[in-house]
Amino acid sequence: MLGGDDPARAMLAVAAVTTVVAALPRAAAWCADAAWWDLAADAAHRPALAAELLRVTAPSPVLPRVAAGPGTVGGCPVRAGDRLVLVARHAVRAHVDDPDCRRPAAPALAQLVFGAGPHACPGARLARAQLEDFLRVLAPYRPAVVRARADRRAALPAWASLIVRPEVAR
Ligand code: HEM
To answer: pLDDT 10s digit of each residue in the chain, 170 long?
Structure first.
């Protein structure tokens, strides 16, 4: 069982499960609202669509960090021990550039929602693959969002429930 008595397992659950549970429904809902199911059904566009949707919906908008050594961040000098709040959401321009799978952000930029450097998320490829699969399976039904309810207790931005209605019966 995962819990406070096993911090390593609990951390992995947050890193690997909570992030995905938070991100995937929000990404699919964006796809539905934008009526992008044709793009989601198209194997040529789907990887870029998934990467772009994760760029704007990844539940890691802010990364608090402590500098291990001196360096520069965005041109600002940083000393060892400095506390940093890295606004990943702004770094990937999620606040100004909506997802566009025909003109996706450069992969190195979009990757920043998964961190950078030696501790970058090892699950990034899996998360993208999961979203691609999710979009592929949903696409034929062209679901529309009926209702979304925020999860007020979640550690990450997430929904308690997301109700969708298939626009195409199979
Ligand atoms: C949408 C899904 C996900 C997002 C947005 C996400 C995001 C992140 C971020 C921002 C970090 C910190 C990186 C840094 O410090 O530079 C991280 C670390 C980590 N992630 Fe993910 N992640 C996701 C899915 C996953 C999955 C599916 C797994 C495993 C199967 C996973 C495993 C981990 C682990 C183990 C770490 C710690 C790495 C380390 O400290 O060396 N993540 N993730």
So the answer is: 445 568 888 878 778 888 998 999 999 999 999 999 999 999 999 999 999 999 999 998 999 999 999 999 889 999 999 999 999 999 999 999 999 999 999 999 999 999 988 889 999 999 999 999 999 999 999 999 999 999 998 888 889 999 999 998 76
* 114 CA distance to ligand 1 middle (Å): 6
The amino acid at residue 131 is: L
* CB-based pocket (< 6 A), ligand 1: 12, 15-16, 19-20, 23, 54, 58-60, 63, 113-117, 119-123, 126-127
* Nearest partner of 114 among 92, 83, 135, 97, judged by Cα: 92
Domains of the chain by residue range: 7-60+92-165
- Cα–Cα–Cα angle for 94, 98, 104, rounded to 5 degrees: 90
Whole-number Å distance, alpha carbon 159 to ligand 1 midpoint, is 20
Asked whether 92 and 61 are in contact (CB, 8 A), the reply is no
> Which token pair is 57?
């919906």
3-state helix, strand and coil shares in percent for the chain, rounded to the nearest 5: 45, 15, 40
| Residue 122: count of CB within 10 angstroms of its CB | 11
Please name the amino acid found at residue 121.
C
Q: Residue 134: helix, strand or coil by DSSP?
A: helix
